[in-house]
Amino acid sequence: MHRATLLSLASFVVPVVLVAQQTTVPHDSVQGAVRTVDVRTRSLEVTSGVGYAIRVVRLQVPAAVPITDRKSGQGTPINLAELKPGDVIRVSFGGRQTGFVAYTIERVGRMEAGVP
Amino acid sequence: MTRYWIAALAICGVAACRRPQLGDTLPGVTTAQRAQFDSGLKVFDSTFTPQVGLGPLFNASGCGECHEDPVAGGGGDEVEHHAAVFHPELAGAMCDVLADKGGPVFQDSVTPALHAALGIDREPRPADATVVAERSTPDVFGFGLLDAVPDSVILSYADPNDTNHDGISGRPNRFFDGRLGRFGRKALVPTLREFNDGAFSAEMGITNPSVPLEGTVGGDSLPAGTDPAPDPEIGARALVLTDVYVRLLAPPAPLKQSGEAKHGRDVFAQVGCTGCHIPTLTTGDNPIAALRHKQVAAYTDLLLHDMGPELGAGDICFGLATPSEFRTEPLMGLRFVTHFMHNGRATTPEQAIEMHAGEGARARDMFAALAPADRAALLAFLKTL
Hints:
Strand order of the largest sheet of chain A: 1-2-3-7-6
Shape of chain A: globular
Oligomer: heterodimer
Strand content of chain A: over 45%
Shape of chain B: globular
Radius of gyration of chain B: 22 Å
Number of domains of chain A: 1
Strand content of chain B: 5-15%
Largest sheet of chain B: 4 strands, antiparallel
CATH architecture of chain A: Beta Barrel
Number of helices of chain B: 13
Helix content of chain B: 25-40%
Structural class of chain A: alpha+beta
Order of helices and strands of chain A: HEEEEEEE
Structural class of chain B: alpha+beta
Radius of gyration of chain A: 18 Å
Distance between the termini of chain B: 39 Å
């Protein structure tokens, strides 16, 4: 009986936990060039795509989102304002009702310098 | 013994010794690869309809509608339109390919459902585009070999600051993620697979596992009911087969050169054409044996070169490429080409040479100054490619 109760609880709790995780677990990532940065609204646009099917991904960047720079080799923290158009960044992000929200941002280089 | 030689010659005549025909596979493909190539040709030559995913914006209803002359995989007389905004004063952001407004490819056809919903016959061009450029249809012969050339080979020809003072300063283009580009008239796209997969979306409006979401109409969402086919509109297998087909398409084998053409080959080098049109590239290691460590008479360095303000005035920026920078066009299969340059405006090789300016000006002027016999020899050489 005790085991049955635990199983019942588990069958209820697990979906709740999964639903809760859906708002925090990244569901996608993109590596592309920064198109615009708006520090005031904490948003940025990233250009990427496949061949000539080029797309712009618009992202909100909450204040707590870690933004790092790979150049130092140790993932040095940087500010949103330090990202510039033409920077190549790797972003993990998820979808919310208001749009895409960044979870992590790593600056990996500059487009003109190339990124292997 | 005689019978043996006759049999051997017969086998040689129909197989190994047969001159590759236009549209054939590269030599040395396996039976399995040949079967995939044949299946890929069927996808390439398919005609898509709105019911199976075409559109609602598109330039063509199938790959083979444009890449058709003289056989599937060849060029075509279709011209499409690309647009961008060029801000030379904005370092790092000088080129906006208008991806948020449907760019850079602005499709020239719409499905009946989209026409009924919006009353348009083509994708609207953004008002802020600084230029709308024309693009002709290239052939795709030998593209698998170009894909197999290592980045290091391409970069070895780059001389962005013209340190050798030859007036030629090729530089690489980069995709938005920083990888080296090589495909397309501006060398933006890094790999053949991406070039092919993206074309299903950009040219035919067909979503696929690589591009799972439909594009917009000038940046706006599609009206309800205008895109009835479920996404992705083709599956991974069709995508792979198409890629195998294009990847294994052999470049046209150069013709045997006459004495005049051989002289023309030397003149081609003497006037400086080979500064950009590098005669031979070598592929690197590759999982496909037919592409591995092969010499390809590509006549390109796959780098960007400034071709002067006249060509640049009517063209777009793309990635790092300014409007006047173009990738050196490969010359393999040139004898089958009927429209030359990125926009197809030249109808003869001579006209195309005359349009060269910027880094190509010196070679153009030397060509113009050649004795008639040398000039004819150079053109005879080009007709063997």
